[in-house]
Structures are given as C-alpha cells and as structure tokens.
Amino acid sequence: MTNEGTSTRDQILHMLKVKGSLPVSDMAVDLGITEMAVRRHLNTLERDNLIKSTLVRQAMGRPTNVYSLSQEADELFPRNYSHLTLDFLQDIKEIDGLSKIEMLFRRRENRLEETYRSHMQGDLEKRVAKLAELQNDKGYMVEWEKDENGDGYRIQEFNCPISQVAREFNQACSCELSLFRRVLNANVEQTTCMAKGGDKCVFHIKEAK
Prior knowledge:
Blueprint lengths: L7 H12 L2 E2 H8 L3 H13 L3 E6 L7 E6 L1 H4 L6 H16 L1 H20 L6 H14 L4 E5 L6 E5 L5 H6 L2 H14 L1 E7 L8 E7 L2
Antiparallel strand pairs: 1-3, 2-3, 4-5, 5-7, 6-7
Helix pairs in contact: 2-3, 5-6, 6-9
Keywords: DNA-binding, Transcription, Transcription regulation
Pfam family, one: HTH_DeoR
Protein name: ArsR family transcriptional regulator
C-alpha cells in the first residue's frame, strides 16, 4: 500500500489494521523504505500510544519485535455505531412502545449522574468547570463562561457525539438537561439545541433558589 498523499504513518496504521501484527522487515518491504525509516515512524506511533510491540521467539535466530495496533488506534478507523443504535432504538419503540425508550434514556441519565456527582465539589463555578471538563472528555467540545450580567454561567457545546440519535429521539436532549440540573444542583435552561437545528447547544445556569 503506497498511496500518494497518504503519510507513511497512516500507511503503517492501515497496514497493521489489514494484516495484523508485523515485524519491521515486512513493513519496510511493503512500504519500499528502509527499516531505519520504519523504526522512526514506529517510535512516534508508540509514543502516541497508537501501536504496541511484542517480543516473539523464532525457530532460528534472535527473538524479534512485532507491532500491532493499540485500542486507541482502533478508534481512528471509521465507525458507524449511530446507525446500529438507531436501528435498535426503532425496533424497541415498535416492539415495546415509546415508554421503553424513555426508560432507557433515564437509565443512562442515572448512570451518568452517579459518575458525575462524585466529581462535583465546591461552589457553582467550580461545579460548572468540572461539568465542562467531563463533557469535553466525552467529545462535546465544551466552553463555559460567566454570563455578561454576572449572575450565572453559560455552557456551550460545539459538538454532539450522539447527534444522529438525538435528532430522532429528543429524549437524549431532555435527559442531558435533566442531568445538568441534577449534578449542578442549579437552575439550568437550554436556549439552543443542535438536534433541533442550532449550530451548538447552549445552557444558561443560575444558583438554585
């Protein structure tokens, strides 16, 4: 595999995905470059936790290292979970009705609350900052700030990892709003929603009275 415009790093990742574990010598032959050049790329990939090496004993000669993809690297390749999830949710809706869908989203909300609540400490500002951090870890691309009038806070999410699901099942959005209210123990209102056509999700937060 030697595609013009594809970096050697990407070619190595693709090769390991297709062929499985390989020694440096095999990669060098397939790529048409020296083993030393391959090792330079492997060092970078190993540093970035995208590959792992295993020492393999051979029938003759010294043991040799073979390289394979790490779990982190596996996430670089295309995924289509959303369509599978949507198919399952549509089937559940048809078999057991909308109430079962709502129950599933509430169960997810409860699990997230249990996870998030252990991180919620300090005043409201600290809780908002921590919530933004936790959502960022899940891929929501979050920014937060104080409101201009100084009596509350604003969270903005610029990405929704479950957007395709949320567009079909708005329960995902209502449960996220409910989750924020519960873990922040504050008044939270949503003014913009990506699943309803907005370019981002915006939440306004104030101290609970």
